[in-house]
Amino acid sequence: MTLRAVKSAEPAAANASQCCILPSCGAAFGLNDRIYTCPRCGGPLEIVCQPAGPSDPEALRKLWAARGASHEPRDASGVWRYRELLPFEESAPFVTLREGNTPLYSAPRSARYCGLEEMRLKHQGCNPTGSFKDTGMSVAVTQAMVLGARTVVCASTGNTAASLAAYAARAGLQPAILLPRGQITAAKLAQSMDYGALICEIDGNFDECMRLIQELGVDPSIYVANSVNPFRIEGQKTVAFELMEQCGWRVPDHVVVPGGNMGNSSAMGKGFGELLALGLIGRLPKLSVVQAEGSAPLARLFAALGAAAGAVESPIPDTLAPVEHPRTLATAIKIGAPVSWIKALRAVRRSGGSILSVSEQEIADAKAMIGRDGIGCEPASATTVAGIKKLVAAGRIRPGETVVAVLTGHVLKDPDYVSQYHRGVLSLDDPEGAAPPERIHGTFRNVPEHVAATKAAILESLERRR
Ligand SMILES: Cc1ncc(COP(=O)(O)O)c(C=O)c1O
Ligand SMILES: [Zn+2]
Question: What is the C-alpha to C-alpha distance for residues 294 and 336, in angstroms, rounded to an integer?
């Protein structure tokens, strides 16, 4: 693959723009304006573009399927394969690590655990850096190249940083990442070190890192790669396309994702919305978002809105009350003030889904169950299965419905959590230090045994577990 740095901005696809999503504004801006929120009203931006090339659903399906068998780098990428729906010229200096192309597994034990006849898990943790962030980063770093940026920055709970560091390294750009000190798993930090990023460990939480990013973003040499950047969402929306291909274009009844900063849920909603508008699917899956109880500002708002929560026509509230001291062992989603909450709420409402929260115990047990299916994931991803169990119990998902949970990170992203759960010593400190730590019970624990070095002893151990 050849990467070509473009010195000056190329003319972008003429039919694409960045648009403010707030109905009270709706302002449109050029694709290559370096903006992250609406310069007129401060609202969130999204990319609006007409598909390039064929718009006939059957022709698009055939084209994308054919590319799946090609070894050309853009075709082999699970993002760029869908380039008709991405806002770039053919000549764009695209940056890829063959992201996407992630498996869709059936998960019978997890399904039974939730009270479902069947469940499938779309494992975005099988991306090149081990999380779903890679699909978005491929596109955001490509846009950084188009704009001639030198440095790309992000605030991160670990996965965005690892992904940005890798893609910037591929593109020959300088990656700089802001992390809450002491709150990132060792594996994620090690990845960013290996990819050569400038790592700034900040005394504060993720939300404070995000505030600093907003200040840095005004510097013309710096490009912000957080999911507030609408180009990140363009990359991440492609998982909806890939998922539908894998489902033979039969729409599942429910798609469930974890929620942190809410970029992923926003992107899912956008992806399915575009497929519906193009006639590639005939209805939307119900999109539900699951947060960790101690970091659940949007789930709280959704519950507080009562009957109006899911009503497409009811106005989006002006503000979201943040959680001042977010708390969860699922560090990837330890976020109290999600930047993309408006987009996520809109997407959930349009689809008829829900936003809910689950406890630390529920997350840990669901994660162990996903492991028992031979799949595994990081703690944040397991909120999905925990959330599905709750939705089934509440009658919001019926046992015979088709359900896809999106796993966002690889099991090796947080091995300490895994081994502490299985040894029965997993606990969560109270951030104020006032209450005793919350102990997580190792419900499905699996502890290594000390076994004598004899055949008989090993057979005996096997017999005990049969
Ligand atoms: C593994 C994992 N799952 C879920 C999320 C939440 O995604 P989003 O912030 O887009 O809501 C993150 C975000 O860092 C993550 O790393
Ligand atoms: Zn606006």
Answer: 9
List the end-to-end C-alpha distance of the chain, in Å, as a whole number. 51
* Cα distances (Å, whole numbers) of residue 245 to 51, 133, 417: 18, 20, 34
Which pLDDT belongs to residue 12? 37
Q: Are 116 and 398 in contact (CB under 8 A)?
A: no
Residue 339 in this model has a pLDDT that exceeds 60: yes
Question: Among residues 271, 36, 242, which one has the least CA distance to residue 123?
Answer: 242
Ligand 2 centroid to Cα of residue 56, in Å, is 32
What are the structural domain ranges in the chain?
97-466
Mutate to test the pocket of ligand 1, among 261, 266, 410 (most ligand atoms within 8 A of CB): 261
Q: How far apart are CA 230 and CA 248, in angstroms?
A: 28
* Number of the ligand 1 atom closest to the C-alpha atom of 257: 4
19 CA → ligand 2 middle, Å:
8
Please tell me the predicted confidence (pLDDT) of residue 202.
95
C-alpha–C-alpha distance, residues 204 and 424, integer Å: 29
> 97-466, which class in CATH?
alpha beta
pTM over 0.70: yes
DSSP label at residue 315: P
Query: What Rg value do the Cα atoms of the chain yield, rounded?
Result: 22
Question: Across-strand partners of 201?
Answer: 179
